[in-house]
Structure formats: structure tokens, C-alpha cells
Amino acid sequence: MEFDTVMMSRLITAMTLTFHIIFATLGVGVPLFISLAEFIGIKKKDKHYELLAKRWARGFVITVAIGVVTGTAIGLQLSLVWPNFMQLAGNVIALPLFMEVFAFFFEAIFLGIYLYTWDRFKGKYTHWLISLPVVLGAGISAVFITTVNSFMNSPAGFTMINGEFTDVSPIGAMLNPSTPVRVAHVLGGSYVTVGAILATIAALALLRKKTATEYHKKALKMTVISVFVFSVLTAVAGDASAKYLAEHQPEKLAAAEWHFETERNADLVLFGWLNDDNEVVGEIRLPGFLSFLAHGSFNAEVIGLEETPEGERPPLWIHYMFDLMVSIGFFLVGISFLYLVLTFFKRWNANNKFMLWLIAASGPLAMLAVEFGWIYAEVGRQPWILRGYMTVDEAATSSPYITHMFFLFLALYIVLGALFVITLRKLFKNNPAAVELEKHYPELNKGDK
Amino acid sequence: MSYELIGISVLWLFLYGYVIIASIDFGAGFFAYYAKATKRDHIINQIISRYLSPVWEVTNVFLVFFFVGIVGFFPTTAYYYGSALLVPASFAIILLAIRGSFYAFENYGSKQSNVYMFLYGATGLLIPASLSVALTLSEGGFITEQDGVVSLNYWELFTSPLAWSIVALAIVSVLFISASFLTFYASRADDKTALDLVRKWALFWATPTIIMALTTMIALSQRNQRHYENMLDLWWVFGLSMGFFVIGMGLLYVGKHYGKAFIAIMLQFFFAFFGYGIAQYPYLLDPFIHIEDSVTNEAMGIALIAAFIGGLLLLVPSLILLMRLFLFNADYAKGKK
């Protein structure tokens, strides 16, 4: 590996996004859960849910702050680090980037109003209504940004003549072939991940302390149900993504599945490793399942990596990223399903220690799955930045200072990450739910807590 | 009007919006620190934090809107400015990141520490300084292109009187705009002691603002004759700017109608900012980026304008709601809500 400006450009972008994606995911998902909790609270006249919404919102502000500043960073870095890419692609894909700013602006305004008006309106639903533009703005932002990334994978909406884009259709570029499946997968994935993280918080609280158990149990139930619903939807969207890849980006699927030769009834390879002769060893092999995954039929033909010119093949290590992402996905479906079954049969205790530990693990794992999936999506596109039109080598800046900037940003993210953890701990450690329930809702009798 | 002109006018308007809103925010940070250092923080910090709390995230969006928009309308700017600004813009990002996130950490996390107040005050002056580099570069002579490699001549930049006078102008303008807004906000909140203090600051920072504006004109005449002469041709625009400055100062001095005084000062900057921008036409970067040559294709230009109009229809009512609830709600400003 050579650390030239191209490599440093890739590393700085990878670093910024690895960090930003955590807060972007939280930013997309948390508003939905705040809104849900407030709604249930009003509907059931249950103060526990109201407090849930308030506490989640309080933590959310901190994540939004980091989301905003790292989002600004990546927005500018697109031009600073990839000037040639933005000059070319800007002609076709500027529209969703531009609209994303509006969506975020909209969200930011209403988030400001939401946070500072808990007790300012007479009707209870008025305040809840303000959460809707926040949920909507967050979701639409994700949609717009995902269309840009989809465009990089499956460019559409223009004709290339003499190295220039003509006949540009901005809407056509946004609605490129991979947009529908990716939008579904990204949105679903964000909601699962946030549900899992909030479930982890509730599970840990139940494992650690014996106070405010009713409050935490309600949080747990609500979030785990959401995890189940969204993880199933995300898995369906993931399956559609695989079928999309088989048709439009066969090299990305082939590299992820270590599927080298075009064949019918192709096996699905899970994990394993490659020996010196590039043969797969130690794998789990599901006969015919790759054909099924790619085309919905065990007998279908799946294009192998051999058909892609050698210089245009993605690196093979993305196999692990793909497998890890999928494994965690199945784990989330399984855990949340198990919890629902236990809850359904009342005589079994759904909140037993073992179950709680499994749920506690699901939040961090879900966030890891987001990172793995994202790395797979990006590295699986290599060597292209705009598949078929421009490689990352051609797109990167030529400035020698990129290395200095890498370390500068590394320091920034370390500081931000550390302060994020410290602030959240301060915010909640000295102010547990039990204390707040006592203080703000003394009317609830002891048994309810 | 051709769509590239609509595009640049809209973007320039947003940049102007950022200049005003961000100046209030940046200056407030500096004043908060200065007040603490001179043990007068109990007088004004209440006012400052009540104003800043609900709007801090809105400020950043104006900037993002501008740079996303300019790359969209004029993709060539990504190539030249993107390549040349790697270092100064990265510094600006880091300062913005420190400022934005520390604000949330401190405000929601714990009590205000001295380190935080210092960083908050310092970044408020350093961010406009680093962002103003882009304006200096646009005058030409700092960016070179050789064998397809665009680079920035740092020596030329750091020894340029124009660069330093733009930096100084940016900083004093920030303090002037911010002080005159806080004067209005303090009067709105009926806070007499805070009003006296911030009004004094507003009157004080007016003089350096005008001096630096004239100094920048002189430095510009030596760097870019064309731009300077275009500005002289637009003398009436700058005359209007000066007129509003006099009105604003008059009202501040008399101590009445602080709201109108602030509007006059906003108009002062509006005319100066647009006069400066129009005089730079037809270049976005002298001599590399010509507005008509660098504009995006027609389909994208029209799509962006349509998106912009749609976006405004959504945002303007939302912004009005935000302002009515917080900025211009006298009870809120007084701390009753």
C-alpha cells in the first residue's frame, strides 16, 4: 500500500464518514422514536412515555451537534478532497445535495422549536405535531444523500459525449437504478439501529439498577418491537439490493460472495478465507443459495468475477464486510423475535438476565452492521468513484497537504468523540430516570416506578 | 435574467444572510468572553444565551447552503476553490466543529468553564478570518494552475495587504453587527443595564468598521484594478450603504428605535456586500472562473432554481414561526417563558 495523495484522500474521507455515519444514523432514527414515545404517552396518558421522549430528546441534541459539524465537514470535503469528481458529477447530481440542505434546514428549525416548547402550548397534540417535520426532515435528508451515493454506483440521467455530460436529467440521475433498493435499505437500517441502541440503553438500565423498572420495561418493549419490524423490512430491502447488484453491478456481488466463475446453481459462500492459490478454504457452503439470493431461483446463472477486467475488480476482503453485516442482521431479527415470543406467553419472563444481555449487545452490533454495510458499499465500488466514468485516482486532489489535514481531522474526531461520551455520561449519570420521575411526576405512586 | 445570474444572486443573498446571522453569533461569543474576563458577565450573558440557544444550528446551514449551491450552479468552482482552499477551509471546518459541538456540550452538559468561554470567543473571530480567505483568493493572483495542478501561493497570500485588510474588516464587522443586534435584543428584553453596555460596544465598533472598509478599498485598487473601477462605477450603491450607516449610528446614538437601527445597519451591509459582489462580475475567480463559462447545464440550472423556490416556500413560514416564538417574543426574551 502506497500512501500517496490518492490513498490519503481516501483515508480522510473514510475517516470522516466512519465517524459521521454514527451520528447520521442516530439523526435519522431518533426523531422517529421520540415522536412515537410522545404520541403513545399522550394517547395512553402515560407519563413514563412522556419522560422517555424528553430524555431521548435531551441526548439527541448532543448527537445532532456532532452530526451537524461532521456533516458540514463531509459536505466541504467533497469539494476539497475530490475537486475533479465534484466538477464532473456536480453537473448531474447537484440537485439532491442542494435539496438535502433544505431538508436539514427544515428539520433544524423544527427541532429548535420542539426542544424549547415542551410546556408552551395548550393542546398536548400541538407539541407532538412539531415532531413530525423533524422526523420527516431527517428521513428525507437520508433519501437525498442516498440518491447521490446511488448515482456513484449506477450513474444515470445523462449521455457522455467527448468527456462531457449532455442531455442531463437531474431527476433521472436521482432516480437511478440503485436508488429504490438503497433508500429502503438505508432508512430501514437506520431505524433498526436506533431502535437497537435505545433498547440497549433500557436493557442496561434494567440489568444494573432496580429503580424505575416500569419505565425501562416500557422503553424496552417499545424499542424491541420496532427492531423486529424494521429488521425484517431491512432484510427484505437487503435482499432486493442483492438482486439489483446481480443485474446491474455483478462485480460487486461477485467480489462480496467470492464467486469467481459464471455458473448456474451457484453456491453461497459464508466466511472462510483464501489460500495462496486464491481458493476458498474453511467456508460454509450453501448449495445453490447464491443463485437464489441473486435471482430468486436456484437454477439461475450468476455472473462471476472473471467477467470483470482485472483492473476493475473490487478488493476481495469486502466478503467479510458483507458476511458480518448479514450475520448481525439475522441476529437482530432473531433476538427481537425471541423477545416477542417470550412477551406473548405471559408466564415466561421476557426480561430475564440472559435476554437482557442479548438485547444489550444488539445496539452496538447494529451500529457495527451499519459501518460494515457502508464499507462494503464504498469499497465494493472500487476502483471507481463514478462507476464506469471516473476512478478515485482521477478524482482526488493533488494537494500535498492532504496528509497534514488527515491528522488534523483525526485529532478533531478524537476530541469530539471523547467529549460526546463525557457529556452524555454527565447528562444522564447524575440524573437517572428514577430521580426525574420523582421530581417531575410525584403523582405517580411508588408502585408504578 | 439568465439562470446563471439568478443562481449567483440567490447564492450571494444566502451568503449575505450567513454574514449577518453568523456575525451575531460569532460576535456574541466574543462579547460573552470579554464580559467574563472583565467581570461583567452577569450583565449580558443571560441575554446572549437566551438568544443563541434556539438558533445555533440554523446558522451553520446558511453556510452549507452557500457552498453546496455554488458547487451546484458552478461546478468549476469545486475544481479551483476546492483544490486551493484545502488547508484554509479545513481549518474553518475544524473551528466550526469546535464551536458548534462545544456549544452543545457546555450548554446541555455542564456549567460554563473558562476554557470553553475562551474557545467560544476565539473561534468567533478566527472563523470569519479563515473564511474571508476565499474572498481574497477570488481577486486573482493567488491561485496558479500548472500541468493540471491547481495550487495556492501561500507566501503571496500571507504577504498581501489585501488579505490582511479583508481579515480585519471581517472581524470588526462581526463585532459591529453583533453589538448592534444585541442592543436591539436587550431593549426588547427591557434589560436596561445590559442595553447600556452593548450600546456602548456598538458605537465603539462602528469607527473601525468604516476605517477597515476604506482600507480594503485601497488595498483592492492595488490588487485588482478592474474590480476596483467597477466599484467606483457603482458609487451610488456604496453611497446608499453609507447613508444607512449614518441613519443606524444616529438612532443608536440618540438611543431610540433600536430595531430600526439594526435594520439600517443590515441594509448598510446589504448594499456594500452587493456592490462588492456586482463589481466582481463577470468573474467568480479572476481570471479562471467566468460566470457564463462555468455555469452548469440548463436542465440542472432550472432544477436548482425550482428546488430553491420550493424550498423557500417551506422555509420562510418555518423561520417566521421560529422567530415569533423566540426572537421577537418579548416574554421569551425577558426570560419569562
TrEMBL record, chain A:
It is a multi-pass membrane protein. It holds the Pfam family Cyt_bd_oxida_I. It comes from the Bacteria. It is found in: Cell membrane. One of its GO terms (biological process) is aerobic electron transport chain. One of its GO terms (molecular function) is electron transfer activity. Keywords: Cell membrane, Electron transport, Heme, Iron, Membrane, Metal-binding, Transmembrane, Transmembrane helix, Transport. GO terms for cellular component: cytochrome complex; plasma membrane. Belongs to the cytochrome ubiquinol oxidase subunit 1 family. This is Cytochrome ubiquinol oxidase subunit I. It comes from Paraliobacillus quinghaiensis.
From TrEMBL, chain B:
InterPro entries: Cyt-d_oxidase_su2 (IPR003317). Belongs to the cytochrome ubiquinol oxidase subunit 2 family. It is a multi-pass membrane protein. It comes from the Bacteria. Keywords: Cell membrane, Membrane, Transmembrane, Transmembrane helix. This is Cytochrome D ubiquinol oxidase subunit II. GO terms for cellular component: plasma membrane. Pfam families: Cyt_bd_oxida_II (PF02322). It is found in: Cell membrane. The chain crosses the membrane at residues 6-34, 55-74, 80-105, 117-137, 162-182, 202-222, 234-254, 261-279, 299-327.
